[in-house]
Structures are given as C-alpha cells and as structure tokens.
C-alpha cells in the first residue's frame, strides 16, 4: 500500500527515517515528505503559506499508485486533514500522531513568537510542555533542537480551508503519545473546539505512551501502529 508520511512543524522528512524501513519490510511503499521551505535551515521560506504545504501533500496523494494511508505528526495532522478534504476518495485512512485536525477557519497553531516571517521551535520545558520531551535523553533533546528548522509563520497562522463533508467518511487512527486515549475521548465528548473535527469522524484511539516524538523515540512501536492501520483498510 502507498503510505504518505507528513512531518510536523520544524521537521524534515528525514524525521521518519527510522519508521519507513519498517513499513517497507512489509511490502509497502512509504514516502516521507519534506514540505516546502523545510528542506534545510537555509531554505527560502519567504511567501510560503499553509496552502503550499497542503498542496504538497495533495500532490503526493495524487502521485501514489493507488489508495493512500496518510500519516501525519503533530500539527502536520491539520495539513494532512486538509489534504483528506481535498481527496476524500483517494485516502483510505488517516493516522494522526500526537495531533488533531483543525476545523475550517482555524489555524494550526497560534501564540508562538514570529521573527522575519518564521517561527522557531520553542524550548518545550521553558513553556511548560515537559510532557512533550519526557522520553528524550539529553543527547537526543540536543539533537532535536539542533536539527529543528524554522517554520514559515503563515503555515501556523493561516486559516485552514475545508469544504468537503466526505472527509468525515475517511476513518482516523488517533495516536495518543504524551496524553492518553481516555484524555482525548474526554476532550471530544466535552465538545472541545480543538478536536471538533474528530467529534464527527470515525475514530480509533490508540495509546502509545511516551513523549511527543515517537517516530524518533519509539519507531518500532509507531511502525506497528501504522501497520495495524493498514490492516484496517483491508489492503496488504
């Protein structure tokens, strides 16, 4: 099966490097995307918008040989969900790892400082998000910050545009790393606006205890979750 992997903010496609071989061992065609402007720290990010990132994912879906399993990390889930909205007939299932799809008109992420049209990765401990990095040792955490690529500010703050109600017919696997499946169900059931798209979707909730970056810290377990999602599509 064709599996398209979308990185989260501040990440290059290589962030999936420990996951893709485990999927390919099972005969799948795994393609990890590097989104526009995220090729390197020195790449030109001027003028890059959320629509550009969504278009890159849609293009990858269109280029696949057949139906796609679309996997996304963190805020990349909002980008992937917009691609599902654009191609609900091509995506068999979506897997959102540590992230939620944004609703129409919402932004992926707000509140982080912008400089010269870019947003750098914050110090997670300093902003009270220690749960994000709980399973990264000092060396791995240093590598994460050293490798992080500034994100185009418009990707974070542009409004998401969704228009096709068929997106809710595409099943979702919601992978819960630094929070639990029970937590996420509670947020959905309580009507939390941040997860309003999940409230209307067909969702399977999967716990993967740890920090926010299982593709780096638990690649084998995350790969198994993705393989399980493939099996839910009825394709091998």
Automatic annotation (TrEMBL):
Keyword Cytoplasm part of the UniProt annotation: no
Record keyword Hydrolase present: yes
Boundaries of every AB hydrolase-1 domain copy: 3-224
Pfam family, one: Abhydrolase_6
Molecular function GO terms recorded: hydrolase activity
Keywords, sorted A to Z: Hydrolase
Protein's UniProt name: Alpha/beta hydrolase
Organism per entry: Georgenia yuyongxinii
């Amino acid at each position: 099966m064709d599996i398209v992997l979308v990185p989260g903010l501040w990440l290059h496609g290589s962030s999936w490097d420990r996951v893709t071989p485990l999927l390919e061992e099972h005969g799948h065609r795994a393609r990890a995307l590097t989104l526009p402007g995220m090729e390197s720290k020195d790449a030109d990010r001027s003028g890059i918008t959320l629509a550009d990132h969504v278009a890159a994912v849609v293009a990858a879906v269109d280029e696949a040989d057949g139906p796609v399993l679309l996997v996304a990390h963190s805020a990349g889930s909002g980008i992937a969900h917009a691609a599902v909205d654009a191609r609900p007939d091509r995506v068999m299932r979506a897997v959102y790892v540590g992230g939620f799809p944004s609703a129409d008109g919402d932004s992926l992420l707000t509140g982080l400082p912008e400089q010269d049209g870019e947003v750098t990765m914050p110090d997670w401990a300093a902003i009270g998000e220690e749960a994000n990095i709980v399973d990264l040792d000092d060396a791995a955490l240093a590598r994460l910050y050293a490798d992080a690529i500034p994100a185009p500010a418009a990707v974070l703050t542009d409004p998401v545009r969704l228009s096709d109600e068929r997106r809710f017919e595409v099943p979702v696997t919601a992978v819960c790393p630094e929070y639990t499946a029970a937590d996420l169900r509670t947020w959905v059931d309580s009507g939390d606006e941040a997860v309003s798209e999940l409230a209307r979707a067909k969702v399977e909730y999967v716990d993967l205890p740890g920090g926010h970056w299982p593709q780096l810290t638990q690649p084998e377990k995350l790969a198994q979750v993705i393989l399980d999602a493939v099996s839910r599509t009825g394709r091998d």
